[in-house]
Amino acid sequence: MTLNRRDFLKVSGAGAAVALTGCATQSAPTVAKANPHVVIVGAGFGGATCAKYLRQWGPNIEVTLIEPNDKFVSCPISNWVLGGLKTMDDITHSYDNLPKRGIKMVKDYVVGVDTSKRVLMLKGGSTISYDRLVLAPGVEIMTDFVKGFREAEAEGKVVHAWKAGAQTALLRKQLEAMPDGGVFVMSVPAAPYRCPPGPYERACTVANYFKKAKPKSKIILLDGNPDVASKPGLFKGAWKDLYPGMIDYRPNNLPYAVDGKTMVVTTEFDDVKGDVLNVVPRQKAGQVCEMAGVRTDSNGIWCPVNLATFESTSVPNVHIIGDSVLSNLPKSGHMATNHAKVCAAAIVELFAGRQPDPIPVVANTCYSAVSDTQAGYVANVFRLEGEKGYVSQPEGGATAKGDELNFAYAESWAQNIWAEVLG
Amino acid sequence: MTIKTITLSLAACAGFGLAGIAGAADMHTQSISSTCMSCHGPGGKSLGAIPSIGGLDKDYFVKQMKDFKSGARQGTIMKRHAAGYTDAEFEAMGAYFATLK
Fold this sequence. Notes:
Largest sheet of chain A: 5 strands, parallel
Structural class of chain A: alpha/beta
Strand content of chain B: under 5%
Largest interface: A-B, 68 and 55 residues
Shape of chain A: globular
Oligomer: heterodimer
């Protein structure tokens, strides 16, 4: 540490103030067990990172990570798979390195949470007790919200592909099978949803593929928002300059029904027919958050937390990180890794009987490809400023135009964050 | 952070033991430094085009961050990040990354 006395006072003093205001919703630091046990649900960007840093910063802490999937499949770069720039293998990674860090991996589903006894029930029949629980389930897709979606999805006709995996591979196959001159209809849910720029990047990478492989094809982009919700200059510029006449962007067009037999998406205004349909319904905090009783915002959609510790404001000793959190922070994999680090640091301090850092800083960095050679970014630093919550710092923002250098950085970013989370 | 926040914060500081606060400050440095690694790779060792920052000389690190913040050094994304941190944090992060050889 090289903070001088004045800086030290700035940091520690400001910190204490937030800690005080946070007291109402923060369980007390506990100096108790020699080897406290943290159970983490979900080994995505947030959960795996939290496990890693808990072991790094609190070597005495026992960490169990529950994840039903065999492999990590990255949502970031999955749009590149849809556009044919990358393969499923490129975005699929093993969990093999996590046990080497002393993390106990359990392949199972959580089917119940008793937060008074601090016990999780697993589908396999076993139970696991915890001192602190970290929920990192990502989003639950509200498939009932679009009439007919669930049936069309079950028949493999229409997918959201908003969780990378089998649906990503299926959507890519549908796009490959589509004839030249076909119409690809995709939708954007009303914000907030996972990965704000994701739908617009997807329109770009698919348009790049169409331009090369089937140039008479069209994309109809039905947006539940009044305008492009992220990096509007970057995406609208790319659509105009790189794919003139190919992308029909329709704001304020939220789909409320889809029919996988007639291949029609219905909005308030139109019936839109397509050859490939990609409907992305709205989302909420993962189901395990409901089991733990922490999906407690006014609509029962997201999880309010103490923003210095990511502990639920409703249930003590339960922390939530990543997309499921109610906040102004963008729902991204990158942001989830930053939630994870702040949460891990707080848990280490709480177990040690100390006050957690009350002025944490989180940053978001998000690259989006607009073609197979160009990308742009959005970046923001957010500092926790007491009751104001996380405040976006000056100079945060997005590029207005994609370029080759940022495409190279986007590829490097993906390699680095995968190594950071799983390595 | 505004002056008002700092003043209010200092007033509220009295209730806490120094030991706990010192721990928090140290964890603050580790936590903010770890945020860099989501782009620059674990330990600041990068794969690919993004530069590595692990093991950089502290004074060099601090100067680059100040120059990104002021605009004296042109870059792509770093001005947006550098603007979010204080000079004291640059010093603390620089000292930390210098240890990651």
